[in-house]
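INTERNAL AUDIT FORM
Audit reference: QA-55
Scope: verify that the stored structure record matches its stored sequence.
Auditor: D.O.
Record contents follow.
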Amino acid sequence: MTDEPFDTPARTSRATQDELAVRGIECYGHHGVFEFEKREGQTFVIDLTLGIDTAPAAASDDLPDTVDYGSLVTSVKAAVEKDPVDLIETLAQRISGVCLLDDRVEWARVTVHKPDAPIDATFEDVALTITRKREGRP
């Protein structure tokens, strides 16, 4: 019997079992297909989950041995607030690239919420979730 929970998929390393999440990052961006979305902008909410190995940080108790989520949030906000794009798919890809800049991040799951999407109906949220792995990882 392994130490791995029965509902956890088989993983290639210890690192992919650890997850760091930051949820509800509010950003203001000018993304969308319509001209008024680019002109007026709107709120986007970002959720991040990162696959990292937390063992080095747990052993050392030093911030340099883990992902500094404060700095990461600042970088993600900057990525959302710059250069407008049409699609949340493009925005999510941009954010995942920011997350994967840190070599300790094996994979990133990014959800982009667009709660004020221009839809002619009552709705709670529009959200897109993508998962991207570092190049060369299975």
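Auditor finding: record pair retrieved intact. The CA atoms of residues 17 and 51 lie 7 Å apart.
Action required: none
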